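Attaching the record inline, Q. Sequence:
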Amino acid sequence: MVTMHRRHIEVTILTDRFPPAIRRWSDLASGLLVLLFCGWYGSFAWEFVSMSWQLHSKSDMGGIPLWPWMASMLAACVLIAAAVAARWRIGRQHGEGSSRA
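Structure, as predicted:
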């Protein structure tokens, strides 16, 4: 929800001074950067989860399988990417360049 509604902490020293057209491009670039990071991190998370699953890794003390907890990293990447895509879709429907309040 925080990513989709842009309620996170932002440093906008430069972007607040941009004209609206350039601000739209900077918002697009920031979203693409987030998607690139999610893809990169998600690929490593996938390898981590699959290796843990193949090895049947379990915690030392309780014998709890580790792969479901490791899969939360992959799930977070998917959810953040979906939030960025939803933010773009909502922005296009409302004709907004930025969803700042």
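The radius of gyration is 18 Å. DSSP finds two helices and no strands in the chain.

More tomorrow.
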